[in-house]
Amino acid sequence: MALEAAASTGERWYEPELFRLKAEMLLALPKARPREAEQCLRTAIAIAQQQEAKFWELRVATCLARLWARQAQRADARDLLAPVYGWFNEGLDTLDLKQAKSLLDACSDARRSGVRRRLRE
Fold first, then answer.
1. Are 53 and 61 in contact (CB under 8 A)?
2. Could you give the CA distance from residue 8 to residue 2 in angstroms, rounded to a whole number?
């Protein structure tokens, strides 16, 4: 409904967030639909990049990276999120940037743990 309203009115500045919210709803369903959610998030990132909307790109990238991390794709999650997070040099105490940093740290810690585990084997 909201996505249709954005399309019909031409007010698309909020569109990346609408796709992100749709993805979150798909993931929250009793029978989650991660593939559809991932597609929504990829669409949201593409729109945010086209709009040069770094805040929306960060929020969506954090969401997609979180999904990938849950699917044991931590390196991909980090590779997606690190450059977007690295673009910011102000506002590092905001909730979105704190969440992104926390996820990056968790993905890095998991990578280091995996390397240590492989070295012991």
1. no
2. 10
Residues with Cβ within 8 Å of 85's Cβ and at least 6 positions away in sequence, in order, are 58, 97, 100, 101, 104
* Separation between Cα atoms, residue 116 and residue 111, nearest integer Å: 9
Q: What is the CATH number of the domain that holds 28?
A: 1.25.40
Number of separate domains in the chain: 1
Range of the domain at 99: 2-120
Whether the pTM exceeds 0.70: the reply is yes
pLDDT tens digits, one per residue of 76-97 = 999 999 999 999 999 889 999 9
Closest by CA to 111, choosing from 67, 80, 76, is 76
Tell me if 41 sits within 8 A of 67, measured CB to CB: yes
